[in-house]
Amino acid sequence: MIDKPFDSQFDALAGGAMKGLSDMAGFGKQNVEAALAASRTLVKGIEELNQAWAQLTMRMLEAHMSSVEALLGCKNLKDVVELQADFAKTQMEKAVSEGSKFSELTLKVANEAIQPIQARVSEAMKQAVKAA
Length: 132
Description:
There is one protein chain. By secondary structure, this protein is mainly alpha-helical. It is built from two helices and no strands.
């Protein structure tokens, strides 16, 4: 009879401990899955940024080649100066515009990549409040 209460207490404690360990393992697995999802999103976003940079580089190269061709066709120094001033102004406007686009794209990628991690942090906070 003395063994019965001890056995039932031990079984209750062991069962609770096993459930806790199982819950912890499941939570850890979900954290790893969230990290993997964030990594996949980040890689996809970086690929998108790289493509945008490559396209911008090609457009800039084409613009420079056109400018050189136009400069070679100039008949006097005044035309060269005017053409170069127009080119510089246009390139500065494009740089500002493209810089804004890249900033927006980078922010979008970062926000999308962090979402799975934020969801896990929120869940961890809920679990902590629930446990307390």
